[in-house]
Design brief:
There is one protein chain. The chain is an alpha+beta fold. Helix content is 30%, strand content 29%. Strands 10, 11, 14, 15, 16, 17, 18, 21 and 22 form a 9-stranded antiparallel beta sheet that branches. It starts with a strand and ends with a helix.
Length: 423
């Protein structure tokens, strides 16, 4: 089987690693890929947003199966282009990817179908939003309606911060058209948990749980990022919480999307807040999380191609998902200055230390090959992931492995998974 993976980040490297393990796969192409993916696949320089070129390449190479990784191409209908060309494709169509592409849509869907979430209001006018803030209960959360690289969420402790946030999103257009409309949401407190779920449009199978660390600095300080590290499983995601979410979140959401004529096939990412009043949905995404994929996929025992095909074919009810009885921790190595401004092009040294080590991974997020050397090519550079018998061991292993890699301007958080040490 020939497989093509669309994307070039850490999530796609983790997916490529799993696909390469499948005995059913003979050849992997990646567009555009990165320096790490290039060790497992033939990388082709085609933009993830260029549907015409992507489909033409897939046809030329007689690709049997396509996996679309990132949010932007899914929201733009790249999966549709492959499906309409008769190529089996893992990833939701544009009309289903809207569950991530529009915060307002997902909030309205949850309200309509009684899926537990925070109270909210939607605004397409900065003036109306400013008026609402005058009497709203603080703290409060502002969310850009559209895609903003995982950074379009502002937690505002004061009215002044909220007013500044509205200006930033709606007037200054920090995230472009993503801020044409905003959601203003009740601030929830509790433990955050991420659960990725496979879906074929009718059946939904939750994967093992994970927890992300969004803020740039230790102690959850600094700006929101695309994610500075993760661990899996979450000790806070108990069997009771899982049962509640199965009954009131996961299946109802897939049923709601189908009822709306937006059948969802792919990965539904459920960001949850475990509040004192029970689990509530923070957000939905329409793809694997990044860096959640880097700790969830290595623990999956199934042949991932079997699961991907079942999602496309509508036979997910025939699959039993199995995960290893272990734990994983991922620490992102970033370029100093991320997520605002940073330099790139520095040589990455020490990657050979991960060779032939079954429980250690360096998933490339922002890397490239220049003059025969692997160099930094993004804000988030590598996801150093390690497996352990439990979370504390996995965390120690991951931080040990971060010392194997060096590049100028290397930056990381030192408290990824710290909460698990306190259990």
């Amino acid at each position: 089987m020939k497989v093509m993976i669309v994307g070039g980040g850490g999530r796609e490297h983790a997916i490529t690693w799993a696909v390469a393990k499948s005995k059913r796969v003979d050849k992997i192409y990646a567009a555009p890929g990165n320096a790490g993916i290039a060790e497992l696949a033939e990388c082709v320089d085609i933009s993830v947003m260029d549907a015409d070129k992507l489909v033409a390449f897939a046809k030329e190479k007689e690709v049997d199966f396509v996996i679309v990784g990132p949010d932007d191409p899914l929201a733009a209908g790249v999966a549709d282009a492959f499906l309409d060309a008769g190529i089996k494709t893992f990833g939701p169509r544009k009309n289903a990817a809207i569950i991530e592409a529009s915060k307002a849509f997902s909030k309205d869907l949850m309200k309509k179908y009684n899926i537990p979430s925070a109270d909210y209001e939607v605004f397409d006018s900065a003036e109306a939003a400013m008026e609402y803030i005058k009497t709203a209960q603080l703290p409060i959360v502002l969310k850009a309606d559209g895609l903003a690289l995982g950074k379009g969420v502002l937690i505002c402790m004061t009215r002044e911060e909220a007013e500044d946030g509205i200006r930033e999103l709606m007037v200054d257009k920090k995230f472009g058209t993503a801020g044409d409309k905003i959601v203003i949401e009740e601030y929830m407190t509790g433990r955050e948990v991420s659960v990725l779920c496979f879906s074929d449009g009718k059946t939904i199978l939750p994967m093992t749980s994970a927890q992300d660390h969004k803020r740039a600095g230790d102690g959850d300080s600094g700006l929101n990022t695309g994610g500075m590290g993760t661990f899996s499983p979450s000790p806070f995601y108990t069997p009771e919480v899982a049962e509640f979410c199965n009954r009131f979140v996961y299946q109802p959401t897939i049923d709601a999307m189908r009822a709306e004529g937006r059948e969802f096939k792919g990965v539904l990412f459920c960001g949850l807040m475990l509040t004192a009043g029970g689990p509530r949905v923070l957000e939905f995404n329409a793809r694997f999380g990044d860096p959640e994929a880097q700790v969830v996929i290595p623990r999956l025992k199934n042949d991932i191609m079997d699961v991907f095909e079942a999602c496309v074919d509508g036979t997910l009810d025939k699959i039993t998902l199995e995960f290893e009885d272990n734990a994983a921790v991922c620490v992102m190595l970033a370029s100093d200055g991320y997520p605002v401004s940073y330099k790139k092009g520095f040589e990455i040294k020490g990657l050979e230390n991960f060779k032939d080590k079954d429980d250690y991974f360096a998933f490339h997020s922002g890397s490239a090959i220049k003059d025969g050397k692997v160099v930094t090519n993004g804000g988030r550079v590598l996801g150093v992931t390690a497996i352990g018998k439990d979370l504390v061991t996995a965390r120690a292993n991951a931080y040990k492995a971060t010392e194997w890699v060096e590049f100028d301007n290397k930056y990381m958080r030192h408290d990824i998974g710290k909460a698990i040490d306190e259990q």
